[in-house]
Amino acid sequence: MAEIPGPRPLPIIGNLHQVKKPPCLTYYQMARVHGEIFQIHLGPLTNVVLNSAEALRQAFSEQGDEFSSRSESFTMFRLYKEVRGEDNSGVTVRSCTDIWHVQHTVTARAIRYYILEAENNMFEKSILSEASSLANTWVGKEVGASCVIDPTDSLQKCVAILKGAYILGNVRNGIDNFDKRLHAYVQASVEMLEIMRSGFINDVFPFLNFLTKSKQNRMRQILSVGAEFQSDIYKAHEASYVDGSKETVMDCFATFHAELEKEEPERPKVARKTVCGVIPELFEGITNNRVSFLQLILYMIYFPEVQEKVRKELKGVVGTSRCPSFEDRQSLPYTEAVMYEVWRHSSVIHSTVPHTASKDVVLGGRFNYAIPKGSIVVGNLYAIHKDANVWDKPYEFIPTRYIDQDGRLDEQKVSDTMIFSIGKRSCIAEFFVRRELFLLYSTLLHLCRFENDGSELTMQKVGGILVPGDGSLKIKITRTEVERA
Fold first, then answer.
1. Which residues, in sequence order, are CB contacts of 308 under 8 Å at separation 6+?
2. Which residues are annotated binding-site positions for heme?
3. Does the structure show a pLDDT above 90 at 13?
C-alpha cells in the first residue's frame, strides 16, 4: 500500500498558495508532475484529486459506497440544510442515508418513466414545441429572415418553460405569478452558482468565517426564496394530485414514492414532501443547460464547417417535412458526436461535486493508495477530458473522434466523457439533460443557421470555457427551414 503523492505542503496553509483559479487548471498541471492521483492540502483539509477516467471509475463506481458521503463542514452544503431544513433538501447535499436512497430511487424511476413510457410522449413534444417557438421568437417563420441578438435570456426562458411544463404541468396555474417567480429563481440560481464558484475561505480556515459573511447571507436569501417557492409548488401539487397519476414528473414522484413504500416496508418512512425536495434541484439545472447550449452555438459559429456538416446530416435524415425526434438519434451519429465533443473540448463542467471518504479506504484496482477517512475526493474533469492517453490530440476540436469504424457513435468514448460524473452520486438529471439538449440543439440547428454578426470573431477561454473574446455575445441567426409538425 502506497502513500498518495503530491506537492509538499507548508505549515498551516498547506498548498493553498499554489492553487490558482480555476483550480482545475492548477490540478491538471500538478497531475503532470505527481501522477493521475495526487493529494493536496488546503489548510487542514486533505484533498485527493482524480485526474483520469480509470481513477474516477475505481473510486466513484467500483468503490462508490466508500466515497459516497458529503462533507458536513462545507458551507454550501451546510447553508442548504440550514435554510431548507434537513427534510426538504435534495439529493446533492446529502450523504447516502435512507432519505437519500428514497429520494434517489424515486427520482430515477420518475424521470425514466416520464421520458420513456409516459403517454403521448409529452417530454419530446414539449421540447420540439418550445424549440420551434424559440426559433419563431428569434427570426419569425419566413425562410431567409435573420436577426442579430444575444440569445442568452430567451434561451434561459425557453428551458425554464420546458422544465415547468413537464415537471409540473397544469400545477403551474395554481401558483401565483409562477413564470415570473421561476425566472427570478433561475436568475438567483445563476448568482448562487457564481458565489459557490468563488469559494469560501472559511471551509479551509473556520476562524475566517467573518470574511464570507456577506456571501453566506446572500446565499441564505436566495435559498429562502427557493424554499418558499418549493413550498408553494408542493402545496399546489397536493391540492390537485390524484393517487396513481403519472401525467407530470411531479405526479410520478408522488406515485412512485407510494409504490416504493409498499416495496420496502422495512425502511424508515420518508414523507412525500421530503421526496419532492429534489424538485428545486431540477429547476436549478436550468443554468447549466443554458450554458451547455450556448457553448454548442458558439462552437458552431467558430467551426462553421462543422455546423454545415451537422445541418447536412439533419436534412438527409429528417428532410424538410418534420423536426428531429429522439428516434432519429441512431441515424444522426455526427450530430450527437458534435454535442459530446463540445462537452469534452470546452470542459463546460470542470470537476465533480466533492465526495468524502466515509472511512479509511484503500483505493483498489492498480492504484493501491490509502485514503484516510474524511478526505475530500474530487474528480478533475478538465484533466480527464484532456488525457492524451485516452484522447488523440486532446486540445483539438475533432467531433469524428466519437465515430467508430462502422460509422456509429463510439459508446466507449461516450462513456469516457464524464460531465455528469459516474457511479451512485452521478447527476440525477443526466437522463433528462442528454435527451433535452440533443433535441433542443438538433431542432434549432435544423431550423436555423448561426453565424457571427459580421465582425471578426475572437474566442478566449475563461475558466476553461470558450467565450467571445470581447465579452459580448452577438449572434446572427437565419431561418433556413419552415417549421412543420
1. none
2. 427
3. yes
